[in-house]
Design goal:
The complex is a heterodimer of chains A (258) and B (315). Chain A is an all-alpha fold. In chain A, 76% of the residues lie in helices and 2% in strands. In chain A, strand 1 and strand 2 form a beta hairpin. Chain A starts with a helix and ends in a 6-residue tail after the last helix. By secondary structure, chain B is of the alpha/beta class. Chain B has 2 domains: 225 residues, P-loop containing nucleotide triphosphate hydrolases (Rossmann fold); 80 residues, Alpha-Beta Plaits. Classes of the chains: A mainly alpha (258), B alpha/beta (315).
């Protein structure tokens, strides 16, 4: 297919997903808003004053980047995982794309873009909600944009891999519940790893989510637990790995074609 | 000479079982050619391998061995190009029930790289031709079964494929709609679209096809023109409705036709192998019995199909 055709195919996948995301907005946008309001109420209004400062900033301000990242990661992941899985499992509409000349990398780009758009939109909404509870500090807007983008891409790709591989609805639910949620919550949303014992500090550095939250927090607050360059290197490498893995799955048809 | 629409050589497919071990052998070395412009029917009992064959050609099933070329393009070398030639109507309904009829067809054009400015008039043309234009802004879940089948045909044709693959497109469709679909398929075949059809309605294949292949247990057991296939049938059973009651003498005179009395005024006879129907009618007339109507037991193709698959299963 010529480049123009590939772009049309890409946009068709993205457009279809965006129409779905906005059609079911109470399911796609509201839950994260409600959850973040509750967290901000608990850690800001109710507990924040008792906890005091962390790393020299009020606790609620410390938590905001992590809460935004939590919303981005979960939404990007769930969007692609569910969208892809339902198109292959419930209505088998993925065949519409598989019988067409759309190459695997365009399918990946299309589905991931849907997840990225949803992740970033919800991240921005949570950021807006946080303004009700605390004024924001901004250190480096470019770093913030980079981590907004990286986190949504990584988790969209992970969702795609899960969506391709999953053989049942359990396969879609198990990973977020038993893998992602622990990784996210132990990735430093609510604490700095400097507050952990030495052993757990080392363990945390094997958690890719830690680098996302740490780098993102740097963009707002100007400090991080590990150097920014290390976070970026880890995340770019993880993105490349996930792109390669997703491409391999779609190219070979593993989990998709019998 | 133009390229065949489809060339399949020694095609094999063994599905993998849950434990990763080789499972069902669905295709056991199929070789088949469908010429451009043909209306080709692939017949076979459930589980014979028809859908597997179509799945491999269209990219939904991975082959174990063999070669497939679509208009000369090897699917191992450039499946994406081969797919541009093909339109597929799958056996299972696979339309998004929340999407509107119009969007389903226009989006499919998008996957083939066709801009909306070209896809929209083409979609309108197809929806009109298939009687779905009035429903174009309805969600697909509101359509009847027959309408959903026609929607899948419109979707498969939106990119003007040279080769249309239909896997049981008329399953569950009432007679009137089915005949309407036949007319439409014959029309696009005359206009140059090659058609590969699988169906359980053998009457459908008999009416529409130029060439036929019968598949059983993953292999092709008969392949040729409709005339070639029908020639497998040496005799044919015919029912005769008589104006009067059949007598033993009249039955005796029809001995060579293996007559059977169905009821007092209806008999069946076997014709063929040098025994024509006119001699039987003359014989009955000689016994004072007028023949009011003559009926075939079933479609000839159906009889051939049953005969060949029985023989193959017994082998």
């Amino acid at each position: 297919m010529p480049l123009k055709g590939l772009l049309i195919s890409f946009w068709t996948i993205v457009r279809k997903d965006l129409v779905r995301i906005f059609r079911i907005w109470p399911q796609t946008f509201l839950p994260s808003i409600v959850t973040s309001v509750l967290y901000f109420l608990i850690f800001g209004a109710f507990l924040g004053s008792r906890i005091g400062d962390l790393e020299g900033v009020p606790y609620i301000l410390f938590v905001v980047p992590g809460m935004v990242m939590l919303a981005i990661m979960m939404n990007a992941y769930n969007n692609v995982a569910f969208s892809f899985f339902s198109s292959k499992f419930f209505m088998r509409t993925i065949d519409e794309i598989l019988v067409s000349p759309t190459p695997p990398w365009v399918i990946i780009a299309g589905f991931v873009t849907g997840g990225v758009v949803r992740g970033i939109l919800i991240g921005l909404l949570v950021l807006l909600v946080s303004l009700i509870f605390t004024p924001l500090a901004l250190t480096n807007i470019l770093v913030i944009i980079a981590f907004f983008f990286l986190s949504s891409v990584i988790f969209s790709l992970a969702g795609l891999v899960n969506g391709v591989y999953a053989k049942s609805i359990d396969g879609i639910n198990i990973v977020p519940t038993f893998v992602l949620t622990p990784l996210i919550y132990l990735g430093g949303i609510f604490y700095s790893i400097n507050t952990l014992p030495g052993f757990w500090q080392i363990v945390s550095q094997f958690n890719p989510v830690f680098y996302l939250i740490d780098g993102f927090r740097y963009g707002f607050l100007g400090f991080s637990d590990v150097p920014l360059a290390l976070s970026l290197t880890v995340l770019v490498a993880l993105t490349a790995f996930l792109v390669g893995f997703a491409w391999y799955l779609l190219k070979t048809g593993l989990g998709l074609r019998q | 000479m133009s390229q065949p629409a489809l060339e399949v050589r020694d095609l094999e497919k063994t599905y993998v079982s849950e434990g990763g071990r080789p499972g069902t052998k669905a295709l056991t070395g199929v070789t088949l050619t469908i010429e451009a412009g043909d209306f080709f029917s692939l017949l076979g009992p459930n589980g014979a391998g028809k859908t597997t064959l179509i799945g491999i050609v269209t990219g939904l099933v991975r082959k174990t061995a063999g070669k497939v070329r679509v208009y000369g393009v090897d699917i191992d070398e450039d499946h994406e190009k081969a797919k541009t030639f093909i339109g597929v109507v799958p056996q299972e309904l696979n339309i998004n029930i929340f999407e509107k009829v119009f969007d389903i067809v226009v989006n499919q054009a998008g996957y083939y790289g066709i801009p909306r400015s070209a896809a929209i008039p083409r979609t309108e043309e197809l929806l009109r031709a298939l009687g779905l234009y009035e429903k174009r802004f309805d969600k697909s879940q509101t359509l009847s079964g027959g309408m959903k089948r026609r929607l899948m045909i419109a979707r498969a044709l939106v990119h003007n494929p040279r080769f249309l693959v239909l896997d049981e497109p008329t399953a569950g469709v009432d007679v009137e709609l089915r005949r309407g679909m036949w007319d439409y398929l014959q029309k696009i075949n005359k206009e140059g679209t090659t058609i590969l059809l699988t169906t359980h309605y053998l009457e459908e294949a008999e009416q529409l096809s130029k060439h036929v292949a019968i598949v059983n247990k993953g292999g092709i057991i008969a392949h040729g023109t409709m005339r070639d296939i029908l020639s497998h049938l040496k005799t044919e059973t015919i029912f005769l409705d008589l104006a009067g009651t059949i007598t033993d003498n009249a039955l005796g005179d029809l001995k060579g036709y293996h007559p059977k009395k169905i009821d007092p005024t209806t008999i069946s006879i076997e014709i063929g192998e040098g025994k024509g129907i006119s001699d039987a009618i003359v014989s009955l007339h000689g016994n004072g019995l007028q023949v009011q109507t003559v009926r075939a037991q079933s479609g000839k193709l159906e009889e051939v199909f049953v005969k060949l698959t029985k023989e193959d299963n017994a082998a």
